[in-house]
Amino acid sequence: MSSSPFRAAVVQAASDPAGSAASAAKAARLIAEAGAAGAKLAVFPEAFIGGYPKGARFGAPIGLRLPEGREAYARYYAAAVALDGPEIAAVREAAGTAGMVVVIGVIERVGSTLYCTALIIDGTAGTMAHHRKLMPTAAERLVWGFGDGSTLPVVETALGTVGAVICWENYMPMLRMAMYGQGVTLYCAPTADDRDGWASSMRHIALEGRCHVLSACQFLRRRDLPEGQECVLGEDADTVLMRGGSLIVGPLGEMLAGPDYSGETVLYAEIDPAEIARARYDFDAVGHYSRPDVFRLTVDRRAKPAVAWIEDDA
User: Fold this and answer.
1) Who contacts 212 (Cβ-Cβ below 8 Å, separation ≥6)?
2) Is 117 helix (H, G, I), strand (E, B) or coil?
3) Is 108 marked active-site?
4) Strands 161-164, 186-191: parallel, antiparallel or unpaired by DSSP?
5) How far apart are CA 45 and CA 137, in angstroms?
6) Residues 160, 183: Cα–Cα separation, whole Å
7) Is the pLDDT of residue 314 over 70?
8) The whole model's pTM is what?
């Protein structure tokens, strides 16, 4: 890991209502913009490619699945992406051209199941890792599957150790501890939570993990949803569905950028990797301030497929 300071960005922008290819193209433009501004790391919101279906019900009152809900899901399914598809290739190419590390939320399609996924792309090294949201929140469970311990990576980069935790996963203490246990220094939190309390949670995580925390949320208006998508929050095109609140926090809880609620924007902050050692001088949650004789976390990193094939070697 380099000890040299660098510039980081959090991208507060809405998905393109024209679809995933258009959202990927928008991401590529924003990566180029951030790169031109000197950023070496950019964090995008949850579900930026594939879309966060804010206000959609998918026709699922308790005990029923209505035909219109099945149609809504079919459209949402069609908008999801494969990790080896052209949309992700466009983002990887942009990250490579800019020489940046990019963390971006996507809706991943695997077979007939969708996952809310965060990609970690090191454009300089050409590597990519992904994390599938372990616990979709509330009605998200109608349309998203559950990740498992096989996608809890951190990526060692020239900038530091990058990890991604999505939205309300950040309220799961053991998941946070799993990130700290892997030495995360750049803790990225793509989210759809724009509430006032979110900033306090991000500051707490920065202090708890003694790491830099970068959180990106969409600034999403009704007109940014795909045509025909239901939204119980109204039909006025100017209605704000997500108001942003993106931010960057230092490892002692200092707010380096944001939170911003003004509209689509890119926020920047200077990150000094040397601050990590200074911050952990008096607190290291998985080191000198831990008590493994009393508390220990066990993380099962095995994939949990529904069907496991055992070959007969005889």
Assistant:
1) 8, 160, 185, 186, 187, 206, 248, 249, 250, 251, 256, 271, 275, 276
2) strand
3) no
4) parallel
5) 16
6) 9
7) no
8) 0.96
State the sign of the Cα–Cα–Cα–Cα dihedral 70, 76, 80, 86: positive
Around 213, how many Cα atoms within 13 Å sit in the side-chain half-sphere?
Answer: 33
Mean pLDDT of 207-229: 97
H-helix or E-strand containing 175?
A: helix 173-181
Measure CA of the first residue to CA of the last residue in the chain; give whole Å: 48
Chain segment 59-76, per-residue pLDDT in tens? 999 999 999 999 999 999
Tell me the average pLDDT of the chain: 96
User: Structure tokens of 202?
Assistant: 């991000």
pLDDT at res. 217: 98
In this prediction, residue 313 has a pLDDT band, given cuts at 50, 70 and 90, of: confident
Residue of 26, 40, 46, 217 marked catalytic: 46
Distances (CA, A) of 27 to 5, 15, 90, 186: 25, 9, 9, 20
- Cβ distance 230 to 241 under 8 Å? no
Q: Tell me the mean pLDDT in the region 160-181.
A: 98
> Taking a C-beta distance cutoff of 8 angstroms, is the pair 34, 100 a contact?
yes
Is 46 a catalytic site residue? yes
Question: Of these residues, 133, 188, 217, 275, which one is catalytic?
Answer: 133
Token pair listed for 195: 């509430």
**Catalytic residue list contains 40:** no
Q: Is the pLDDT of residue 157 over 70?
A: yes
Residue 147 structure tokens: 């990740």
* Integer Cα distance of 117 and 135 in angstroms: 11
Q: pLDDT at residue 262 above 60?
A: yes
> Which residues pair with residue 73 across a beta bridge?
none
Beta-carbon count within 10 A of 146 CB: 14
Question: Cα–Cα distance between 31 and 48 in angstroms, integer?
Answer: 13
The DSSP secondary structure of 140-162, one letter per residue, reads: GGGT-----GGG--EEE-SS-EE
Annotated catalytic residue: which of 54, 87, 116, 167? 167
| Residue 136: cis peptide before it, omega within 30 degrees of 0 | no
pLDDT reported for residue 311: 86
Token couple for 79: 């908008």
